[in-house]
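May I ask for a sample protein chain and its fold as tokens?
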Amino acid sequence: MNLAKIANGVYKKYGVKVQATQDERSIIVTGECDDWGKIVEIGKLFVDKKSGKYVVNDIRFTGGEDRPPLLPAVCDDKLEGTEWDVVIIGGGISGCSVARELCKYNLKVLVCEKHSDVAHGASGANDGMVHAGIDIKHKCKKLHYVTRGNAMYESVCRNLGVEFERAGQYVIFTSRLIKFLARTYLIRAKKHNIPDVEIIGKKEICAIEPTVKDFAVGALKIPSTGAVSPYKLTIAYAENAVQNGATISLDTAVLSLEHTDSQITGITTNRGKFTAKCVINCAGVFADKIAQMAGDRYYSIHPRKGVDLLLDPKSDGLPSNAISLSPTLKTLKEHKNTKGGGIIKTVDGNILLGPNAHETYLREDTSTASCDIDEVFNKQQRCCPSMKRAAIIAYFAGVRAPSYEEDFIIERSAKVRNLIHVAGIQSPGLTAAPAFSLDVAEMAKDMLQSLGVQITENPNFDPHRNAPIRCKSLSDEQRDELIKRNSDFGKMICRCEQISLGEIKQAINNPLKVATVDGVKRRVRAGMGRCQGGFCMPLVVKTIAEELGVDYCDVQKGDDGSYVAIGNIKEI
């Protein structure tokens, strides 16, 4: 790769002067620019997949000020002086699934998550689609783990007590030319062992999904696509890990890493300093920052924000299946690093639209804007013209963590003896997690053994987690019997989602000890219906206060300091 030639090309195209050097693992690009989009595009120009080197994009952004990372308010010595076999940094789907797999061995495992609950980042803010892998063109780690992970979902979700539906996906063709060109997907599916993919005609797709009858000429049917609640799956992995002996320390941010003689020797957090024989970097959008703390930064993460819209399932004109429009040559060029989003049927019966994809230099910017809502809705309405904007009841944003190579980085550090990187885990990382967590656990086991640690299997490991009670899914007879045993399950708190007091209490008393409004919401969906908590939130706050024996003003919405109430406005 001629780095000087590419740098000259950058100046001609973008008017930005950059310098590029390389070492044994990386291509390092430096310079400065006031346009973040240009910085990202420039970084992509230096990707060299033949060499296997990663891009470290150190072009300084002069067009805005970066925000310091969000840190928990708590500061104590809870973890001071402790010793661990494995410390996992990050409580997303990567960190929690790896923790659970490591519990198969007699190891002291700690997960450090800086927020008040797991699945706080991209793991809790995505559409929950379990991808088949049809969008991935070439062999890579992403494809390898996505196809393996997809096949594992029935057994994983059954063991963890999480709902999963393999309802399939339909990519709609709007012209005969697109339908003809889509035959390449059949070749790709066969090559990548994606089962039962087929092209169906206009009559069949319109019978399956009548909302597309006015424009569809056929569709690509992908039966192995599924749906899961991303935050419920992450929570389930975390809870099962705790039940099997792991420790998950919430409100715990890694502030620095000490490293000597090519090994991490100390981890400093807001809750004390401690040691670990093995460190696993699952820090999402901050993975490259953690790598830098460890003296092993050889890749860059460029955050990519996406907005999803949630629709009221009781609205008219909604599709009953996961559908999207087939890409054209124009849209492929416009959205070459995203699948373009779609219309997703969630396991809870809602319809999700999105996401879109925009590069951002702010790693924790989950704000939403009217332009994002317009962009997502207008695009997806082309696939289902009968959808009405009035059906939108909520919207949210998540920030993905891609590397410039747009592939997963799952490997032992070549520079630090006791460090493993699980980075660049963007969509479809949720699909891949059951598979790559097995390999990462094996890497950690091999690493510890190479460092002289004696490892034995945990004879008490139980892969099963009991599914929380869901009154909504019970028959009338089952519900009556449950209420006879515990009358709390007959007292309705959230009318939109039909969540009882018993379910709220069950959610509050979870193995992770998360007792916040958002924690309850994620576990049982109280506040996720049409009124978005307008009616049930005061009752949820009341129940949390009573269960914890605290004042209403001590109840928090989510992260430390997010109090729901600040005091009484009159005496009663």
Notes: Residues 38 and 500 are 51 Å apart (CA to CA).
